[in-house]
Amino acid sequence: MTCLCSGILFADIACWPLSHIPLEGELVPTEKIELSLGGHAANVSVGLSRLGVPTTTAGCVGDDGLSDFILNALSSHGVDTATIQRSPGRCPGTAMHINVREQDRRFICTTGANEDFVLTDELFEKIRSAPVSERKVFYLGGFFMLRRLENERTVEFLKAARENGWTTMVDVVLNGPRPYWDSNPFCRTPIFFFRTNTKAKKSATNAILTIKPRRFLTPVPGPSSLRREKAERYASARRNSFEREFFRSTTSAVPGPATHSVRA
């Protein structure tokens, strides 16, 4: 099996849990601040690579040090980064995770170069030239945060992938208040798997009838707080749980007409 994982790529900057949110002008100490790889496409690529699945990542980063970190981190896990695009003068997607004891996480982020990601002719050729007999999976993660993909070309790409025997999966993010479903060309494209959180799933009710996914995946809710002694274990489990579910689903999927099925 081979996988092409495309979508958002992030550099995540996270502090260990604080005693409280800083007041104006206040300095609050933390035991550690860490830089790590993040974003749907990156997380899934690393998870599948750990499972021994040959994986290529497609996305867009900038031309600064954080962008280099993302590329190096993916390569260190054996992920093929040859199709990752670079956008001059841009920073990559970057998120700051603010953790406070006994509270859920807070985020500050910029989408950065993710906004420049496009489905190139090279990616079209990649899905069309893959061996017919090989099991193939195309994953698109962080859709709706990738504004340049909200067009007919994405519709053509997903259809071409299906026609060439790829199992297709789309994972969406609702990024701020705006219309998402009714006028988006993507919503006219049949796909095999459709993943989102509960809030986005509720807002997608009308679109589901058009997309007709074989499976509708939603993540299992996690704890409402990140205690210091459990922070690393929790982050690792959350990051890897979806890759295991995705692997189990796609290894049993056979390309063909999609049927509507909602998985709670």
List the helices and strands and how they pair.
Elements (H helix, E strand, L loop, with lengths): L1 E6 L2 E6 L17 E6 L1 H11 L4 E4 L1 E2 L3 H12 L8 E2 L6 E6 L7 E5 L10 H9 L6 E8 L8 H12 L2 E7 L20 E3 L2 H6 L1 H7 L3 E3 L13 H21 L13
Parallel strand pairs: 1-4, 1-9, 2-7, 5-6, 9-10, 10-11, 11-12
Antiparallel strand pairs: 2-3, 7-8
Helix pairs in contact: 1-7
Which terms would index this structure?
single chain; 264 residues; alpha/beta; UDP-N-acetylmuramoyl-L-alanine:D-glutamate ligase; six-stranded parallel beta sheet; four-stranded mixed beta sheet; 7 helices; globular; disordered C terminus
- CATH class label: Alpha Beta
Per CATH, the architecture is: 3-Layer(aba) Sandwich
Distance between the termini: 27 Å
The residue fraction in helices comes out at 25-40%
* Oligomer classification: single chain
Task: Explain the overall architecture.
With 264 residues, the chain is of the alpha/beta class. It has one domain: UDP-N-acetylmuramoyl-L-alanine:D-glutamate ligase, CATH 3.40.1190. 30% of the residues lie in helices and 22% in strands. It is built from seven helices and twelve strands. It has helices at 40-50, 65-76, 121-129, 152-163, 198-203, 205-211, 231-251; strands at residues 2-7, 10-15, 33-38, 55-58, 60-61, 85-86, 93-98, 106-110, 136-143, 166-172, 193-195, 215-217. The strands form three sheets. It has a six-stranded parallel β-sheet, sandwiched between helices. A four-stranded mixed β-sheet has the order 3-2-7-8. The chain has a two-stranded parallel ribbon with strand order 5-6. α4 (152-163) links the parallel β9 (136-143) and β10. α1 (40-50) crosses α7 (231-251). The longest helix is centred in the last third of the chain and has 21 residues, at 231-251. The two termini are 27 Å apart. Residues 203-235 and 250-264 have low confidence and may be disordered.
